[in-house]
Amino acid sequence: MTLSIQGRTAIVTGAARGVGLAIARHFVERGARVMLADGDEAALNSVISDYQDVPDARRFIGNMSEKLAMANLLSATLDAFDRVDILVNAHRFVRSSDPLDTDIDAVEEMLRQNMLAGLRLSQIVAKRMIRQAEDDGEQVQAGAIVNVSTLAARRPVPSMLGYSIACAAQEQATRGLALALAPHRIRVNGVSFSSVMSHELQCALKETPEKRGQIIAGTPLGRIAAADELAETVQYLVSEGARFVTGQIVTVDGGRSLADPVTAQIL
């Protein structure tokens, strides 16, 4: 089984911090050509400064929920690397919400940022992958897409109802796209995580340090994972080693989903 991604071109959204940044760095370190995309210009500029002498790491600044930005992201990737083989939708918008609040706009924003953005970008990129496959000829896979979400999709948290709905919708979109794109030899999978040191969890632990002990106590493996550990799972899913895996949501949580109470904080 080969897990190599050397020489392959990847787009990683949400790459300015946290899980998205860990995935992008992991890919660059393993020889992939990576377009790091994010809407936070200052944060992304700080990240990309570490790769000034690395021609295989480029940046794109834009709102990943806007169609024009998505089209421009693909164009920028093709200008830089001439092709795209991998898409990782790691951009996430997390906000608490009152389950009794009738502010539908807040739920719509969660869906737009966390599900529709990744779905639309996947559609745009998949069309390019299909055209590339026609030129490349027969091969095992024409492309691979991975959507990143959290256990909120299956273990809803009342204070994050809108986010939970969006994560669940994203996972179903992953399955639907997997079926639609399988005839074109494009695989689509998801990674659902918890007890991983994401940007949101870092912020939460700064405000309430006592949560660290609660999370560890609720995680059977007894620790919080580094974001790099999640990146390794994403690498597997986009590699030839997973060439017969599609439509799956891989859970990376140290066993937390097996033991967590429904009301536990999920980040």
From TrEMBL:
Listed InterPro entries: NAD(P)-bd_dom_sf, SDR_fam
Keyword Oxidoreductase in record: yes
Keyword annotations from UniProtKB, A to Z: Oxidoreductase
GO MF term list: oxidoreductase activity
Regions that span the bilayer: none
Oxidoreductase keyword on record: yes
Cited Pfam families: adh_short_C2
Superkingdom of the organism of origin: Bacteria
Family named by the database record: Belongs to the short-chain dehydrogenases/reductases (SDR) family.
Name listed for the protein in its UniProt record: 7-alpha-hydroxysteroid dehydrogenase
Organism: Paracoccus tibetensis
